[in-house]
Amino acid sequence: MRSSLRVRVFSAAVTLALALVLLDGLWHFFSWAIVHAIWSVPRGADGAPDTDLCRAAIGRGACWAVIGEKFRFILFGFYPHALQWRSAIVVALFVLLFALSLNPRFWRPALVAVWLAVLALVAVLMWGGVFGLEFVAADQWGGLPITLILATFGLALSFPLAILVALGRRASGLPVIRWIAVAYVELIRGVPLISLLFMASVMLPLFLPEGIDINKLLRAQLAFILFAGAYLAEVVRAGLQALPRGQQEAAAALGLSYWQATRLVVLPQALRHVIPMLVNTFIGFFKDTSLVLIIGIFDLMTTGRTATLEPRWQGFGNEVYLLLAAIYFAFCFAMARISRLLERRLNEPHLPIVEPA
Amino acid sequence: MSGPAIRFEDVHKWYGRVHVLRGISLDVASGERVVLCGPSGSGKSTLLRCINRLETHEKGRIVVDGTELSDEPRALKAIRREVGMVFQSFNLFPHLSVLENCTLAPIRVRGLARGEAEARAMEYLARVRIPEQAGKYPAQLSGGQQQRVAIARALCMQPKIMLFDEPTSALDPEMVREVLDVMVELAESGMTMLAVTHEMGFARQVADRVVFMDQGEIVESGPPGEIFSAPRSPRLKSFLSQILHQH
Ligand SMILES: Nc1ncnc2c1ncn2[C@@H]1O[C@H](COP(=O)(O)OP(=O)(O)O)[C@@H](O)[C@H]1O
Ligand SMILES: [Mg+2]
Predict the structure, then answer these.
(1) What's the Cα-to-Cα distance from B57 to each of A252, A256, B196, rounded to whole Å?
(2) Is the distance from the beta carbon of residue B197 to the nearest atom of ligand 1 less than 6 Å?
(3) pTM for the whole thing?
(4) Which domain holds residue A148?
(5) Could you tell me which of A357, B53, B62, B196 has the fewest CB atoms within 10 Å of its CB?
(6) Domain total for chain A?
(7) Surrounding residues of ion ligand 2, Cβ less than 5 A
(8) Is residue A136 part of a domain?
(9) Which residues contact B64 (CB under 8 A, 6 or more apart)?
(10) Do B164 and B199 meet the contact criterion of CB atoms below 8 Å apart?
(11) How far apart are CA A277 and CA A270, in angstroms?
(12) Which of B121, B20, B53 is nearest to A249 (CA)?
């Protein structure tokens, strides 16, 4: 009894101490981010913002004015100013697409068609050159659309690739296919993503025939698809291995072809088993897109960093990086939510994952 | 077609260096009901699984419903359509409802319309006496109910031949009866059946012939009365005495 009382007093003391530390930290943050924050700065005689006010407040209050001045550049990079509405629509489309995919009511085969349509629309809006839209070369794209494009196209294309590779690794009668699948996974996994990106941006053009020039973004996108495909393939393979052999045999005995059995019996079960691992890989991959910084593609991370390089705004990186963190968090959190929803739904056997067509 | 439903001609199979089928020759006539028995590891499952080519054989010929088994995909497809199989471990598709389990192959392989496939599924679910479970998922059913669904699922393809691989050995004793009753009824309807089972009561009741296998060979075969009351080979005698001790 005495000792249990002592334990309780001790744990109460620890809880209290932790709460105080936490509160103190929160208060300091609140004081910096809200109470002493500078929300806007006056403009000098030349029309340029005068950041003296912010400089005076460094260390005491946040300078949110940098966000107000720079948010269009951070979000859209060097996309022509007058056409940035197109970039904005692209971001909105992606957000809408993710929101739609979050709702179990829409988990039906038609969602795949919606995804394809949105991805096509994104390409039209970004590039233009059709329907009277002015053409914008890919090296002018930047900011959030780049991050979302790299991640979304990357996942949408690497996932089917991963499934094919995982199936190929188990193709017992086709040693060549199995060998190619193994070599692909092991090669890509054994190399850092950064070196893959370098290879895609520097070496790939050397191997291409004269006159053919794939733009840098497309090359980076290719590197991402290959990279994510290898990791996802291993996750999918784990799901395939967890499936009892009897499932495939029962499907074959009923007369289903290999592809019918794979599509209707094997994959729906195998993928269910590995949803948390899949989403985990997706989230990691979303954040890894920021590595394109090193080959000079202006994704969200790069535009944010570039914004703080302007002499006038130097020293206000914290504010910009907080904004970037908030944006990355919002997207990753949404993916985590999808994962949780899916898992909950799968624990109720009477709820199908996908409504029958 | 007046040939046998299934014909094995000197069939051999190896797993690596293990010789598991050693010269099997066996005819099963159309409408005949054959029970296959023998000690564990004697090759009964392997023999059964060669018939719909879940396993391949290395030597000899297997002819099913007039078509010889080979790597030719069209022949294989034709044979699998006509041969239904029931496994020891049920192998229902857990992500599909009972009704969907039963309509999947008729729709995808036979090309039936959904309505037609569902009507047929309900008919066979009624025959195995669980029409009220059509909307449930396999995990919500007992073992006996799952095995009856598996039988209905195979029957929905309206096969000419049904294969059973120890359909009751994974079941709790109180559920064996309900599955055997369904199998007896099916046997009496004139279906060609090849069943691996140690349920001697079932064999006596419906089998036209009992085939005894040991170490990859057919040792003895004949009507159930003869096999059970007047075994000739010592191997069959010792097998029967073991079975009787168990029961
Ligand atoms: N996939 C396999 N790989 C290797 N050996 C196997 C395999 N399946 C079965 N065997 C072997 O083949 C023999 C016959 O097995 P099986 O047909 O399952 O016998 P039964 O059904 O009569 O118990 C056994 O010795 C078994 O160990
Ligand atoms: Mg067996």
Answers:
(1) 17, 21, 19
(2) no
(3) 0.85
(4) 144-297
(5) A357
(6) 1
(7) B 45
(8) no
(9) B5, B6, B7, B51, B52, B79, B82, B83, B161
(10) no
(11) 12
(12) B53
- Contacts for B28 with CB less than 8 Å, ≥ 6 apart: B4, B5, B6, B7, B34, B161, B192, B194
- Residue at A136: amino acid letter: V
Q: What averages of pLDDT result for each successive group of 10 residues across chain B (247 residues)?
A: 86 95 95 95 95 94 92 90 95 94 96 96 94 93 94 96 94 91 92 94 93 95 92 92 75
Beta partners for B196?
B36, B165
Mind listing the pLDDT tens digit for each residue in A214-262?
Answer: 678 888 888 899 999 999 999 999 999 999 999 999 999 999 999 999 9
Q: What is d(CA A161, CA A181) in angstroms, rounded to the nearest whole number? A: 10
Q: Give, for B194, the enclosing helix (H) or strand (E).
A: strand B192-196
Measured between beta carbons, which residues in chain B are less than 8 angstroms from residue A250?
Answer: 85, 87, 91-93
Query: What would you report as the CA-atom Rg of chain A, rounded to the nearest whole angstrom?
Result: 25
Residue A29: is it exposed, middle or buried by C-beta count within 10 angstroms (0-12/13-18/19+)?
A: exposed
Q: Is B67 helix (H, G, I), strand (E, B) or coil?
A: strand
* Sign of the alpha-carbon dihedral angle for B94, B96, B98, B101: negative
How many angstroms separate the CA atoms of A304 and A67, rounded? Answer: 10
A130 is written with which tokens? Answer: 């059709």
ipTM: 0.93
A110 in any annotated domain: no
Domain assignment present for residue A186? The answer is yes
Residues of B with CB under 8 A from a CB of A: 52, 54, 77, 80-81, 83-85, 87, 89, 91-95, 104-105, 108-109, 136-137, 139-140, 153-154, 157
Kindly report the CATH number assigned to the domain that includes residue A172: 1.10.3720.10
Q: How far is CA A264 from CA A30, A165, B96, B239, in A?
A: 53, 18, 10, 42
Q: Which ligand is nearest to the CA of B213?
A: 1
